[in-house]
Amino acid sequence: MLITINSWYILLPVFCIFLLSLFSVRRKKIFTTGQYFVLITFSIYLLAVLKLTFFPIEIYTGGNQSAQPIWKVIIQEIQFIPLLTIDIPTFILNVIMLIPFGVYLPLLNRELDSSKKAAKYGFLLSLSIEVLQLIIEVTLGSGRITDINDIIANTIGATVGFLILKNLGKIKIFKVMLSKLSLV
Fold it and tell me: Are 15 and 44 in contact (CB under 8 A)?
């Protein structure tokens, strides 16, 4: 039997809780309209990434339980070989998926001032996604494969996004606009 968990059952309540906490909790610092815009669009972006990478979650129940040891199941669900097993369209889509993440990073964190740091955060986000996909696959049988190429592509995407924002920040009109949007 197959049970499907759609994204709206989880992501919509999470977004509502985020909005309630953003607007109802008294904060020491009041955000400007531009800063609220950055926070809300960043949360929508993260929810979209979660939807793309995890949902729908399909749970297979009943009959065909594997008699293999768990370590064998895990090994079968990981694509270890980088670049040789690359699927070009998927790789490009993974790069594109994390470009906005790289753009948001310097707006949210003052200390993020180099492409190396952006790559580190992109790598950590991507690694977290891949590990959670593996855990969901092993425990629920969701059909997701953990792929080293996704981590490489996502890291590149975050770095490209950071570089785009930094280069736009050199143009006077964008520099003024980014200073109004930045939370730092």
Answer: yes
pLDDT tens string 13-33: 999 999 888 887 666 667 888
Query: CA–CA separation, 24 vs 56, rounded Å?
Result: 31
How many folded domains does the chain comprise? 1
For residue range 126-183, list pLDDT tens digits in order.
999 999 988 888 787 766 778 899 999 999 999 999 999 999 999 999 989 888 898 8
**Domain housing 87:** 2-181
For residue 56, give the nearest of 2, 4, 129, 128 by alpha carbon: 4
* Alpha-helical runs (H) found in 32-140: 33-54, 70-76, 88-108, 115-140
